[in-house]
Amino acid sequence: MDDAIQIDNRWYIPAMSARADDRNRVLKSGDGFVVFSRHGEMGHAGFGDQGFYYRGTRHVSYWHLQLAGREPVLLNSMVHLDNSRLVIDQTTPDLFVDGACWLPKGGLHMRRELGVHDCVLTEHLSLTNYHQQARTFELTYQIGADFSDIFEVRGNSRPRRGEVREPRVEADAVIFGYEGLDGVTRRTRAGFSPAPARIDADTASFDIELGPGESFHIETTISCDEGEAGFHVPGHARAMHAIDGDVAADRESRIEVVTDNEQFNDWINRSVADLQMLTTRTRHGPYPYAGVPWFSTPFGRDGIITALQTLWSQPEIGRGVLAFLAETQADSEDPSNEAEPGKIIHEMRDGEMAALGEVPFRRYYGSVDATPLFVVLAYRYYRRTGDREFITRIWPNITRALEWVTKQLEQHGFLVYARHDANGLVQQGWKDSDDAVFHADGQPARPPVAICEVQGYAFDALRRAAELADLLGHDTQATDWRRRADDLQARFERRFWVAEIDTYALAIDGDDRPCAVRSSNPGHLLYSGIVSPDRAARVSRGLISPAAFNGWGLRTIFEKECRYNPMSYHNGSVWPHDTALAAAGMASCGHKDEALVLLEGLFNAAIHFDLHRLPELFCGFERISGQAPTHYPVACSPQAWAAGCVFMLLESILGLRFDPDAARVSLDYPRLPDYITWLRIRRIRHHDGELDLIVRRHGRDIAVNIERRKGPIELNVTV
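-> structure tokens emitted (719 positions)
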């Protein structure tokens, strides 16, 4: 692994090489996802991350096709806009025998359609002869299954592994198996219809004869299984029908947004499709898995922020996230996985290494921010839906979360973290690289660490929980939480503001020393509302300064700070969700001009990325005219909270609010950027009413009109 790239924190992708150089194609459904090359192959080329994964294990590591003994020539490779399928067009190069061309290039056309539905990957291949003579040739598939845990694929070495079974070969299928050290049998079945002429442990071959204009079809179904319960083999048409049904149900459940700017629409549509693909239906409701390939699993912080971004357009996600996190909330103390009563989970993993404790993430609670953010999401979900019954149901979970928060405040004055196990995360805020929290001279912050944005989350959680307590008649709790919020705000302003850098400290360390480093973190403080109005204006201006804003988004650490590196994971790169939260905070404080600057930056970045898809992060180099943003080598793409950015940004600039007690929707001082003349929103559902509306810009003036109204629903606009 000489080409390995070690990212700052050892748990975050010590991957084999850059993903940005090979435009992979990604499909996901449920607990299964696949990373293809653009040729629809796995493992034949690329950098080691390709494969078909199911529940934390790579069930297919090699998938390669040859036609007439040669590599097909790629004509086109396209993931449908709705992410439902990958379609590939290929042909043959000039084919020679004894120096004579027996089939000129372009004589055969191969069209492949591939789709994933949870534990099943299917492919339909159509082969057509456009040559003027009949031709006979061989088509072969090669397949391999290494059953690597996803952490092995990411670069973690293991002292020993389980036992790989000898493949079982049938007339139309080959079955691979692996006996894990965790006692789980994992199997993969690759089946073909019609049956191949020849099949062995790693190759299926078809003898094909085609006259002029004739076609031949092959269907492949790859099924994953754990515990030998039996393979699900639905066939391609049935699998695609199920995928299309999932996409249609998602389309019906959400608000639709269209503008007069087609490039902006491309960004919206890609984000919609990515969120649909990344969202998995759990028994608690929909949950957006964090990202592909490395984080296709529930993350507490990521799920909450994605739900906050999409609450106005798809509140079912917020409910699903809250229900899932309430069910998995810690109820006891376990230092090995950072569990403490009331804490909200950070990360959950399937897979052999997690089950064996080789990595601590089977159920891991090592984040300081997920717990207060859980309370914030509960409040905002109520404000969006008025769903008092659900809030009553999870009230014990909200109370336990606040008990954990208040215990921290009583002991330390702020919410702090320090890992309790050597295998856990050193940094437990959203910037969780080992070197992400430091002093102005570059020295690391000594634990326990109070990171700045988490104090804002705690403040927001306390005051919002007090409002919910008022609603439910818990007057004593409401009074206590308001008092604690006021005390925290005063203490925070006194201790975190650093006049020398004209912003808030990145953190305060265990020696009670502020980390006087300019960072993007104060943007989250604007979102939480803990910042005083005069300082909110100063923070907003600072965040769009050249040192902070690189033209595409916010640098995580400002240029010229000690550890600034635009190619680092958390010390100078740009994370779209971080930029969107800051913009939402600016807008909520009345600084929409600054918010529009950040919106324009992310929009221009999205135009340049493949498929108009914002990745997890990208490099923080200054924007140069005529050049695209610089890719970050191993960024996940798609990533849920990157996909959710556009919805949070639109909500913020429109000033969109919902009355929880009535069928009333409000737009407070709505704005549109100068590259959008009109914006249409369809299917705004609230209580028993439904609205379609259009927002039009006339210079800096805004007009809002109702295009359709269903039921008793009211629209209020303040301009």
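The chain has three domains: 25-244, 254-654, 664-718.
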